[in-house]
Protein 1
Amino acid sequence: MKFREEVSLYLKEAYSLSENTIKGFGIPKGFQRTGSILILRSNHKLDERIGEACLNIYSWTTGVFQHVSTQTEGRIPKLIYLAGQRNTETIHIENGVKYVLDIEKITFSQGNSNLRKRLINEVNDGENLLDMFAAVGNLSLQPILYKTINFHLIEKQPYTYKFLLKTLKINDVTRGITQNIDCRDITIKNWADRIFMGYHDVNEEHLTSALKALKQNGIIHLHPLVKNHDVSEWIEYYSKIIEANNYSIIDVTSYTVKKFSPGLEHTEIQFKVSSIKA
């Protein structure tokens, strides 16, 4: 039975609600499980009885929250409590990797799970990996654990950085470098073979800092929000910055990660570049 049907049946039986009343609740089609917390997405306030239904249907659930939006550069989720425990800290496990999270203050998208698996295959043993928007290792942790690489993780938000350190510790990661700074303030030069930039609004200053940290040859992963499947505008924007910093573009590839909102897609664009200063 599908999620919406299960919840509707529970509401009908537990609260003696009519089908028309339940239909008016606007029950989402599905949910996101993050650790022991169940998250529902909707732009309108959901009835708390939907949360109670989820608690009773899914025995693993400790708390139910509604995700309304994500705000600011720090990608802070806006949540509404619906049912169960109010504790928002949890440990989420994906592909054998543990992520320590506070869902109220740290964004972790399960819609990126296929991206994370693909990155394991793309990162090569022996590489130097720089993650400029690390969060809790959202993109970089699985390559760190499943490949033999050197890594440098940067996370600007002090609260998120604490959870990054907790995540590394719980996964027994004792090597590598972490910094709680703005990635535009990095001082490393000519070090990275590959750079992850998992922030939708990377600007010229961010990308220029990345290029300074890149070796003569390297790959940069960018994550813009693309309108109507057309990546050309973003490729042109990034290309101008790359070429202005004396790098030539060897290859460009793009992948649709997931639908972000109506008319917008989270897209990954990879630039393979080479310095023309040598």
Note: The two ends are 61 Å apart (CA to CA).
Protein 2
Amino acid sequence: MGVEIAVTGLTKTFGSQTIWRDVTLTLPAGEISVMLGPSGTGKSVFLKTLVGLLKPDAGSIVINGRDLTRLREADLYDVRKLFGVLFQDGALFGSMNLYDNIAFPLREHTKKTEAEIKRIVGEKIELVGLQGAEGKLPGEISGGMRKRAGLARALVLDPEIILFDEPDSGLDPVRTAYLNQLIVDLNAQIEATFLIVTHDINTARTVPDNIGLLYHRHLAMFGPREMLLSSEEPVVRQFLNAQRIGPIGMSEEKDADELAAESGQELPPLPPIALQLPTSDGRARRTARPAGEWCRANGVTPPPGSFQTSTVAAGAIASSTPASASAPTAPTAPGTPSTPSPLSSYAASAELVDEVS
């Protein structure tokens, strides 16, 4: 089960350079959140600050009633065990095979026997669909497999919070779609709190429960997915819809002449809000909200065509269960053959993609 992260008034500088200031948000327990922003806005710095690798200049980060910014190093070390991190490139040790890479945190931070480690590593390898690749070195496998190995390593200590630093970096669109499906299925199974830093707009529009946008040294907006996807706030609208018209330019901000040249230009309509990416078998995640709930509750009219089956996430893994399924399946009676889990469906598909690449 995930835990809530309450961030209040967070400010970070490097010398005279302000990275961001007065960042306030709450990452809800067990939900998937995405943090967006133009390059250089401090998204990775935000992740490192959350986990205590960087100390903020001001503000608080409260987890389970403890403010990470005020903890002694020994106590901070203990809180870090709540976290699992998937780094941009997987950050695997090149001289170790996948099994030893995934086992590394268990050998470093626990007193488990090798038999226990073998069982846990085997579970995580199966979870991410890497059966049979345990003996391979990172240099012998595809980028998508390295990401999955990095994720398996992030999971071995059963974290309550998982941070993803640009998990789609370096992946083609097909593997990005499979990784997104794995993230959704994994969240449904372990119910940890997920925070994903990404530049991929399709991921941001279809995977998370919540979206945040860092821009010009501050948090421009953070809230439920539908709130940002229906927002008329210029920077949010421009970034989430990949438009040229708006305050963001090649050097982060446009100058006055550029903005004046755009004055009077008609903005393209907001695209439909897609259905949130479902789990592989259509089972509802505990934290998933009904489509259109936020818009209805706040009197917001979504763009035409929103929440239709045809606007479900591009690249979603096909399922025989409708995307709109909202009730968990009933427990299987003893002796009844079990239905394959969403993650086993993912694993089979991912293995096929890697085999043919």
Note: The chain has twelve helices and twelve strands.
Protein 3
Amino acid sequence: MPLQTVLRAGLALGLAALPLTALAQTADTLPVGETPVGETYVAETHGDWEIRCIRAEEGQPEPCQMYQLLRDEGGGAVAEFNVFDLPDEGQVVAGATIVTPLDTLLTPGIRLRVDDGTWSEYPFAFCQPVGCFARLGLTEGNVEAMRAGGEAIVALVPLPAPDQVIRVAASLSGFTAGFAALEERNAAAISLFQQLQQQQ
């Protein structure tokens, strides 16, 4: 397996290995250089998307992902949408995690579509005190649809009302620029990994 693939996979695994609350919590609003190690901070904003990173020790690569909080018509928080870059190996080129409230009915899973496109269904992987997590593998076609689309619609079923479906929309404004910036950060992290490896 090429070294770059290993390193990029390592960044994604680094996100997965972090305490789940680290990326689900409100990002630190301190200036970037003042964010404590291990805390989440907003590194960049592109349209309606934030790039959130976990502050690492100086000279170490930082795992980052795109983030958007999804709200209902009344402004209440319903779900968190996180997107991260993956090695361009095989059909899946990016990953996403959608976090929903604990009182979500798990058996139907969640559904996702871009604008008026076809629904895709995904199961929930697990629940933690912060919510229930669905993990999505995104193909190049999925990513291209999000680049070209206006909104990504997430549908879920509330546990107290299993005969109802709640739909919330993630704005795709800024998605193209945000994902490109995320890929650049991954490339920079790979370069840093390689430099650190050469110094050993």
Note: Residues 1-25 have pLDDT under 50 and may be disordered.
